[in-house]
Amino acid sequence: MDRREFIGKSLTAAGLLFAGRLPFARAQQDRARVVLYRDNSLRNLQGAAEAARLAQMTHNAVRGLTRISNPRDAWKSLFSASDIVGVKVNCMAAGLAPHVGIIDAIVEGLGWAGVPPSQVIVFDKEDRDLAAAGFPVRASRDGYRCYGTLGEYGPGYEDRFQTEGQTTFRLSKIVTRECTAIINCPVVKHHAFAGLTGALKNHFGCIHNPEDFHYFNCDPSVAEVNETVAIRSKQRLIICDARLLQYEQGPSFHPEYCVRYNSIFSSFDPVALDVKLHKLIDMARAEHDLPPLNEGDFPPKHIETAIARGLGIGDENRIDLVVYNA
């Protein structure tokens, strides 16, 4: 179907509550806020022009989330010069990894908040995944640091296991020892075992043994990993790269099952964001004659578990989806 038509229908299906120009009115304290910044001109941009547009979209997504019109002040409201910020990307499938231009924009925004690039660590599970996605693997403090938990510069995992509920794992030392704050940078894709990969599932890349939990719908393990203090207390912002949406055959990259979404999401609430991503994936699946995720063999049970554990707001009547169309 026409991609613009898909976008319009999917926003309605996902529960569009607000649309307009930035900045937005302040929401109630008992509500979650999910901001979607969309620009269909991305489909025609490449190279430096695409990176520049993604940077502007990223800053506008943060403006919309914080309700602060000046982008520098918006970033300053979230971070300070004393922070060491870990940026958790998802590079397992290079074709669906967050765009380097979005990460560069995050580093720029953190700089406005007083955080120098030397205090930013872009990380994932392994160096090889970062390199395949186009990131500069390095420990140099000349720019932002970028390395996997495993690899040439990685600190590895904690020696001691920890248990949350039914899930036992070792956390990355980047999370436990090197960061004071975390920016979660997921992508939007189907996952053969978890149902979908979004903000909650992205933190599976922070533990040493995610494969141990795949055959149980990754449930309740995804929620329980997100319950750990080192993640829950440090996660300060979510910036989701939604240029592409993969609705089937994930988590590996299959471009034939992708639609162009040309968007960036931002939120403070990983549950609220994943609730919206779930609806978007279901909408794309319906347009391609596929059943909803909840009717498959591996539905995203971890979202309901996260709601039950109090990790965020799942009631759609309390989620404000704020859309900005460039």
Describe this structure in words.
The protein has one domain. 32% of the residues lie in helices and 22% in strands. It contains 11 helices and 13 strands. Strands 1, 2, 3, 4, 5, 8, 9, 10, 11, 12 and 13 form an 11-stranded mixed beta sheet that branches. Strands 6-7 form a two-stranded antiparallel ribbon. Strand 3 (85-88), helix 4 (100-112) and strand 4 (120-126) form a beta-alpha-beta unit. The chain is globular and about 50 Å long. The model is unreliable at 1-8 and 11-28 (pLDDT under 50).
What does this entry show, briefly?
The protein is an alpha/beta fold and 326 residues long. The protein is built from 11 helices and 13 strands.
Secondary-structure element string: HEEHHEHEHEEEHEEEHHHEEHHE
Unreliable runs, pLDDT <50, ≥5 residues? 1-8, 11-28
Tell me roughly what share of residues is in helical segments: 25-40%
Number of domains: 1
Secondary structure layout:
Layout: H1 3-14, E1 18-19, E2 32-38, H2 47-66, H3 71-76, E3 85-88, H4 100-112, E4 120-126, H5 127-132, E5 145-150, E6 162-164, E7 167-169, H6 173-178, E8 181-184, E9 187-191, E10 195-197, H7 199-202, H8 221-227, H9 229-232, E11 235-246, E12 258-267, H10 270-287, H11 301-308, E13 319-325
Parallel strand pairs: 1-13, 2-13, 3-4, 3-8, 4-5, 8-11, 9-11
Antiparallel strand pairs: 2-12, 6-7, 9-10, 11-12
What attributes does this structure have?
single chain, 326 residues, alpha/beta, 11-stranded mixed β-sheet, two-stranded antiparallel sheet, 11 helices, 13 strands, 32% helix, 22% strand, disordered N terminus
